[in-house]
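Example complex used in Figure S2.
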Amino acid sequence: MSENLVELVRRHHGEQAPTALAVLKEAMDARGEITDADRRIAAERSGLPEATVHGVSTFYDDLLAPRGRRHVRVCTGTACFAATGDAHVEQLRAGLGLELGERAADGSCSLAETVCLGFCHSSPAVRDGEVIDAGPGVVERVLAGTTAAAAEPEPVSLLEAPVLTRPGDWSGLAIALERSSEQLLEAVEEANLRGRGGAGFPAGRKWAFARAAAGEQKFIVANGDEGDPGSYIDKLLMERSPALVLEGMALAGYAVGAAHGFALVRSEYPRSKPALEAAAAAARAEGWLGEDIRGSGFAFDVTIVEGAGSYVVGEETALIACIEGLRGTVSARPPFPAQRGLFNLPTVVNNVETLANVPFIAREGAAAYRALSPGATPGSKLVCFNERFARPGVYEVRFGTSVRELCERLGGGLRDGRAIKALQIGGPLGGILPASLLDTPFDFDALAAVGCMVGHGGILAFDDTTDMRAVARHLLHFGASESCGKCFPCRIGLQRAHALFAADDAIDRARLEALLETLELGSLCAHGGGMPAPIRSLLAHFPDELGLA
Amino acid sequence: MSVHVTIDGRAVEVADGATLLDAARAAGRWVPTLCFDPRQAPFGACRVCLVGVEGSAVPLPACTTPCREGMEVRTEDPTARRVATAVVELVLSELPEPPAAHTELAGIARALEVGEPRWPGATHAVVHEDDHPYLAFRHELCISCGRCVRACDEVQGTFALTAVGRGFDANVAAGIEEGFRHSACVSCGACADTCPTEAIAEMSLLDLASS
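Predicted assembly (760 residues):
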């Protein structure tokens, strides 16, 4: 991202100016569309050039689709696709008489696409104004105007003492503050806490880089942009255990030497920001956030920011750009955020679930943490199942459990007597595991060995009726429409890959594989680099279904 | 502080913080680039400057990878070249017509021996802006390399240009899609000077080319 623009943002932020994105979101919420006058006002209020603000207004999904008095957003995520094959999208288009992204001429209603609402446990899901309804009959309820809020799942922990499915109580911070910040950093390094957002990078190492970076002012950023369709784990943490996430942020701040944290929450989860803000207010009232926390001399506070619809914003440099209110495009690293991150200052970016692990480490120590999953990756993991399963929901499990055990014992197998054809684990950038490999242990290295990944921990089943060419088309449509447009291989290559599968023609396998290589080796970030993974899996396990020449 | 690296077998010493591209150029070796302009901070968008580095399983972008002591770089690594060539072919495929022969993009395509792109399908919509007396904008030739936007930002300090849209539909706009004339543009020409496709060009050059 432009160093000059970020410096402009930093100065205006220091004067309490809103970001350009925040002002544009307000305009959209107020009037359902963004005009050039809105862009000029956003430029004026944010202190950014008009062209820059215009660029922001053309980037985010939430700012693009015009809204009628009634705004219907249909989820086109992978769990909803696995449930209906996109029939729910067609039924809504026909029933409302609107195309995706269209507003009725009289302004009464509008229809837009959204990926993903995090109701993968009861797909398909539709957001009707502020109400998210999901499950069988949802299309009929939307058309009848009788939508009602869908139920949220109750998380289940398989641990005797849950680490992640409990509300935060600040006991980890209380203990950490009695010791030095070095001791906390050492404990997190020794615990070998691996990032839960996809890449699995050791959190302690990230913290050590940021702690060692020059400069007085540093930041903690909680990545709550859980964009992976099929995953609703961070949603659960932010909405059910927000204090645990905030406690993790404060602990990161203590270890790194940061006095402020930002949490970026996706706009597809309208309940997450209010939940985190309520928890922050309660923590301030109890003295767990603010100046001189509990007389320790340590100061830490948080700001909760809502995104505006972009998958790639989950990448850390794009996430920072989004918090700054700029276009959520990826920046080449180095510089890494630990050196030059938010407002050009040293920043730690950790996933929400990663941070939720820290209070346990601070309270119980590294050895207790490592003992949670003997012989496997330390700690525990939240996994979630999609609607195809008999018992969909969020479960806290130990690493190393076999995927079969998770699917059969927890998920209860598939509903309606259907069989698993394949699983996509860890989001769209993860490979696809055929039913024949269900005995693979659920762990970073074991899944990587079969071309898959832990990712966010979403376990998404395609049942035995699924057309795997349609899966490829669905995933590449997502990949192409979410490309941020910065690097050439992803920007053009995903469009071309999707076009191959969208046409009815046979696909030249050699050309497809050359294109996948270009994406894998050429792309700037994990989006373009990772989208080939599921396609590679399909080529390996379901070649006869892809229509290859 | 300096760093020693080997480029295609030739030892070079570069300043600390230098990139692989700096080192390759210091060694007199050619590395193709599209989004790079030495007057601007490296951007890392085009991925055409990929090179092979000993010990790295994947090719690395030369413009954004810092030199580390002892690195052995192969500018003509077959994998790196194959990917770079494929990327240039993709870029040519998004234009509704081939770039003019004298442009930087056409030169890179010739050097990498990229022929007719084999990707039929969507191309950029033809949109011409010619409200400005000296600067013409042909949006269909824009490859989103960001050089014009960065020239306006980092060289001129005017911020009249921005990237717009996302994915395949990404492009560049002056002001709020109002054209150079009505935006904050000061007509310095830095954008036209750096554009590798003549999506933004000075009128006099266009006249010269057509005559």
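Strands of chain B lie at 2-7, 10-15, 50-53, 60-61, 72-74, 128-129, 135-138, 161-164, 171-174, 200-202. Helices of chain B lie at 20-26, 78-93, 104-111, 147-155, 179-182, 190-194, 203-210.
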